[in-house]
Amino acid sequence: MKTIYIVDDSDTNLALAEEALENDHRVMTLPSADKMFALLEKIKPDLILLDIEMPVMNGFEAIERLKANSSYSDIPVIFLTGTINASIEEKSKKLGCVDIVSKPFTASSLLNLVNSHLL
Predict the structure, then answer these.
(1) How many angstroms separate the CA atoms of 27 and 4, rounded?
(2) Angle between the 107-116 and 11-21 helix axes, to the nearest 10 degrees?
(3) Which pTM was predicted?
């Protein structure tokens, strides 16, 4: 069973994503990037779903920090966002994000996307 981190400051989004993935994966929900980095020292996930718009440390800052650390740079990151445009797509790819999910998402589409990046 693969370990997935879901990092989002919205309890609703955390619950929806967890429900979509929990039958097939070990899911850890985290309300902030700071909490994610604290847990990374103990448990390395196989994939991270990361909200872009969060207080304190946003998703762009978090992925830059992840990719700068050789211990975590190989973890695939999928961004979660309510807004997708060309600028966000370009910046996401440049920072090493493997995909972007638009919120709201359906459980089946999220599960299929996650599984496609875990092959």
Answers:
(1) 5
(2) 70
(3) 0.96
